[in-house]
């Protein structure tokens, strides 16, 4: 009542929902209601049930107030619009409650869609999941061109599907064919890409965004529509034809299903459920699509795969605030100025990533030729991003500007952090660190990207070794989501905090590990890859080894992984691991036999596998090496030919066995760190939740008894004391 009285007074500002937590409305004299979306109780705008109830109250108030002529929604959180549904609520929801929440959201967004006055969403920053579903229910959407502005429906990544009308509205706005990759794979679009697909009406510079809403509403008030000022992008005739002609449409659905099954191997129910929902709802009255969405949400909420996906999401969120990081500003130096040493595969990728994130980065190499090669790779990547409209021409130039090639240490005294990524030789790394200590300030954090050397040995002899830390990126650094942060006994909390804050700025998931040979991920992969060397001596069909691993859910088998790492590098690492961990990591005798063949025929024994796809087979040189070891009697095969289950257990349980030792030695603080690192560093079957989670669902005692069986004649596989202690703690 008070609101209405005030609204009648010209030039008065009227507050809507004065007790609002998220939707803060203010009506101006022109009749435009500006709604600032700014959750008071959280750092991000996430849509919980309570926030939907509040939105519904706001909509009711708008309907009651005749002074409102148009509504502008914008975010009060810099860098994000609405990040999505409040996923923390999903933890405790039963499947029926999840379906009810889906129906409730659909009803509220339908009220937004059918509002009697025009509505505009001004999108800056993340507009994801439920956030995009809300924006799509507004009549107009304007996005800005900032790099942080991303629109998408990433629900499948959490084992879910859009449940608030997203599968109905997205195809209506951008067409079915364009919607498929967004809904089935969670692909996101930046402002410009969203504009070219018709998902938003316009894209403007970030500075202009706050002003375009009112202008737009004035135009609508004058002409009844804003169609004249927005040109709808032309959709390809092929897409339109495929959607309109039923046999072609079912062909498109069939193709999408085949591709989904190929990508997910049928292990993830969410993309298939999304496809089914789209099939049911496309070109039907919205109520049919909505009902299909809620039914799918109900089924997915019961799926164990969804639970694992959600758990991984929460682990990732928790990893943003690790207990061992002192996040007080006195401890952290935000990286403004950095340097990378070594312009090879890793160094050039890391340097580009930093430059992309706004950090002035010197890239140093001793070899000018390698330096220009590294820069050329970076330039190629930038060009590709430009072509795909991921960045603007100005952003491309800015990134390149921030990347400074050099062959000396000039300007190093200004750097906040230096990351070394040169050849994996201890003596060379040590001398580089000694030089760095001279050319940088004593507070500059010195990081190494070593993958197999001890950080403390690299730091030996460096004045102020407390500033030395490991930053182990994975290959390729632009794409791989994990970074291991390695702390030595001496690493200071300030150096650790600075390294951690850099990983966050680079958008990586960081796991903090203590210094040990192989750190966490490579240490766990070592027995997995080595066991494949033993298995090659035992199986009839060598390809069965990779098949077993892939069937289990690994992105690739250990043989393919060895080839990816490089046979020579893998052998080098295996020898280091043996030296560090002794007996149980004794390299499979096959590796030595292979090395011998390689010394006389270097080209014949470069990889374990040859050929591609279905033509892939064992390298004949490896076959010869196997025959040689078998004849030599160096390895007596215990028992018969291993079955697929035996192969899987020997590979996967080897990882679990070593992981238990890592926990015992406090290489990481908790089992969840192992799951996170293995899923994001190696792609370890996400639907199984990681090795520790897999052991828990299998049963720790089961893992132990499997290992005991395999250990007969193979002492390396004997369950470790640490594993037994872990099993006792779990009582299963
Ligand atoms: P790379 O051989 O491609 O590049 C090394 C670069 O360092 C070369 O350009 C070389 O000219 C340069 N360099 C050598 N000595 C130098 C010095 N004293 N000063 C400046 N530059 C120097 O090697 P890659 O693969 O990039 O590996 C670099 C480091 O990253 C190694 O420590 C490696 O263990 C680690 N790493 C490698 C991964 C991979 O998959 N390649 C994954 C994770 C870590």
**Ions, cofactors, ligands: which are bound?**
1,4-dihydronicotinamide adenine dinucleotide
- The strand count comes to 23
Q: Could you give a short account of the major beta sheet?
A: 8 strands, mixed
Q: State the helical fraction.
A: 40-55%
State Rg.
29 Å
Uncertain segments are 1-10
Basic shape: globular
Specify the structural class.
alpha/beta
Per DSSP, the total helix count is 30
What's the end-to-end separation, in Å? 63 Å
User: What would you call the quaternary organization?
Assistant: single chain
Structure write-up:
By secondary structure, the protein is of the alpha/beta class. It has 30 helices and 23 strands. The strands form 5 sheets. An 8-stranded mixed β-sheet has the order 16-15-14-17-18-19-20-21, sandwiched between helices. Helix 18 links the parallel strand 18 and strand 19. The longest helix is centred in the last third of the chain and has 21 residues. It starts with a helix and ends with a helix. 1,4-dihydronicotinamide adenine dinucleotide (NAI) binds next to helix 14 and helix 17.
Task: Name the features.
51% helix; binds 1,4-dihydronicotinamide adenine dinucleotide; single chain; disordered N terminus; alpha/beta; 732 residues; seven-stranded mixed beta sheet; 30 helices; eight-stranded mixed beta sheet; globular
């Amino acid at each position: 009542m008070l609101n209405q009285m005030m609204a009648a007074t010209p030039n008065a500002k009227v507050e809507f929902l004065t007790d609002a937590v998220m939707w803060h409305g203010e009506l101006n004299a022109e009749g435009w209601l500006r709604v600032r979306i700014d959750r008071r109780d959280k750092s991000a705008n996430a849509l919980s049930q309570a926030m939907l109830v509040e939105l519904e109250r706001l909509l009711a108030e708008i309907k009651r107030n005749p002074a409102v002529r148009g509504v502008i929604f914008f975010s009060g959180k810099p860098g994000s619009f609405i990040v999505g549904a409040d996923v923390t609520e999903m933890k405790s929801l039963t499947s029926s409650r999840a379906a009810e929440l889906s129906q409730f959201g659909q009803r509220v967004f339908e009220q937004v869609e059918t509002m009697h006055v025009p509505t505009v969403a001004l999108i800056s920053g993340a507009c994801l999941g439920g956030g995009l579903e809300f924006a799509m229910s507004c009549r107009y959407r304007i996005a800005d061109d900032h790099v942080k502005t991303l629109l998408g429906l990433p629900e499948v990544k959490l084992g879910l599907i859009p449940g608030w009308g997203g599968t109905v509205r997205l195809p209506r706005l951008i067409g079915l064919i364009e919607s498929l990759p967004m809904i089935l794979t969670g692909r996101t679009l930046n402002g410009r890409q969203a504009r070219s697909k018709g998902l938003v009406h316009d894209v403007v510079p970030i500075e202009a965004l706050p002003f375009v809403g009112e202008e737009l509403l004035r135009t609508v008030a004058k002409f009844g529509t804003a169609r004249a000022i927005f040109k709808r992008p032309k959709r390809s005739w092929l897409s339109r034809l495929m959607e309109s002609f039923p046999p072609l449409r079912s062909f498109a659905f069939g193709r999408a299903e085949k591709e989904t099954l190929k990508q997910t191997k049928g292990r993830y129910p969410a993309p298939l459920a999304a496809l089914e929902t789209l099939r049911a709802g496309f070109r039907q009255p919205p109520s049919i699509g909505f009902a299909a969405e809620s039914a799918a949400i109900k089924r997915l909420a019961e799926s164990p795969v969804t639970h694992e996906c959600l758990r991984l999401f929460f682990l990732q969120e928790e990893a943003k605030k690790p207990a061992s990081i002192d996040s007080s500003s006195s401890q952290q130096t935000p990286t403004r100025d950095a340097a990378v040493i070594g312009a090879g595969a890793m160094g050039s990728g890391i340097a580009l990533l930093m430059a992309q994130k706004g950090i002035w980065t010197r890239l140093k190499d001793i070899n000018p030729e390698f330096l220009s090669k590294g820069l050329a790779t970076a330039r190629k990547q930038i060009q590709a991003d430009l072509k795909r409209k991921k960045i603007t021409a100005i952003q491309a130039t800015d990134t390149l500007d921030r990347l400074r090639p050099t062959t000396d240490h000039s300007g190093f005294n200004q750097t906040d952090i230096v990351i070394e990524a040169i050849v994996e030789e201890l003596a060379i790394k040590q001398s580089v660190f000694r030089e760095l200590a001279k050319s940088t300030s004593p507070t500059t954090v010195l990081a190494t990207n070593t993958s197999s050397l001890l950080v403390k040995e690299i730091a030996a002899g460096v004045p102020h070794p407390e500033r030395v830390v490991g930053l182990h990126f994975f290959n390729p650094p632009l794409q791989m989501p994990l970074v291991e942060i390695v702390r030595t006994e001496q690493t200071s909390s300030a150096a650790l905090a600075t390294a951690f804050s850099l990983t966050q700025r680079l958008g990586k998931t960081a796991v903090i590990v203590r210094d040990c040979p192989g750190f966490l991920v490579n240490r766990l992969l070592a027995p997995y890859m080595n066991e494949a060397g033993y298995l090659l001596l035992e199986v009839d069909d060598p390809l069965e080894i990779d098949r077993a691993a892939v069937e289990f859910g690994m992105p690739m088998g250990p043989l393919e992984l060895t080839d990816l790492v490089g046979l020579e590098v893998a052998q080098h690492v295996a020898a280091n691991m043996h030296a560090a961990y002794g007996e149980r990591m004794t390299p499979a005798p096959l590796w030595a036999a292979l090395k011998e063949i390689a010394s006389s025929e270097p080209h014949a024994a470069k990889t374990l596998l040859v050929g591609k796809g279905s033509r892939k087979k064992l390298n004949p040189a490896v076959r010869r090496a196997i025959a040689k070891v078998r004849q030599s009697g160096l390895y007596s095969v215990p028992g018969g030919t291993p079955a697929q289950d035996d192969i899987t257990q020997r590979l996967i349980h080897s990882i679990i066995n070593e992981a238990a030792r890592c926990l015992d030695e406090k290489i990481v603080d908790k089992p969840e760190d192992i799951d996170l690192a293995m899923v994001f560093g190696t792609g370890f079957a996400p639907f199984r939740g990681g090795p520790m989670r897999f052991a828990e669902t299998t049963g720790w005692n089961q893992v132990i008894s499997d290992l005991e069986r395999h250990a007969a004649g193979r002492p390396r596989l004997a369950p470790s004391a640490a594993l037994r202690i872990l099993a006792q703690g779990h009582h299963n």
